[in-house]
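Technical note accompanying the year-one report. For the benefit of new consortium partners, we illustrate the data format agreed upon in the data management plan: each record pairs a sequence with a structure-token string. No post-processing was applied to the example shown here.
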Amino acid sequence: MFEKKSAISDASFVRREAKKTGGGNPPNRLTPLQNKVVGIIGDTQIDGIAGGIDTCQAAGSPMDQSTDEIESMSETESLVEIERERLGVEKDRLKIEQERLATEKQRLEIERKSLLIKEQKYQLYLTKLNLSLQQMGISVNSLNVPTSSDTSSTQ
């Protein structure tokens, strides 16, 4: 039964190729066994009814293709699907990386603000210390303590 279907599809292919224009290599010939099968079943099952309308399949449809071509298409579709899944994973990974970078940016901003607050506390401490020392009559310049104007110039 399989040989009959193969002979029909092969004979149909050979006949279609022979009718094409443009030259090129002739199509592969049928095997002797396929010729016998085609001779037994007749032209109607291969070419269809003369002058009739084809309601089943169009030339070049998957029904005309060899098993290898169908398997190749199936493998290609599988590879395309795998590639789509891989790209989806990459897209998810990129989204996570963007979220991680946004979080890191927020953390750095918080750390920057924290350091600014610590610097302001330090400046306040130095100012209080200078006032206390001045109230006790000690000269601030002789202690070599940086004043707020000294630290602000290094920023």
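Partners are asked to follow this layout when depositing records. The chain has five helices and no strands.
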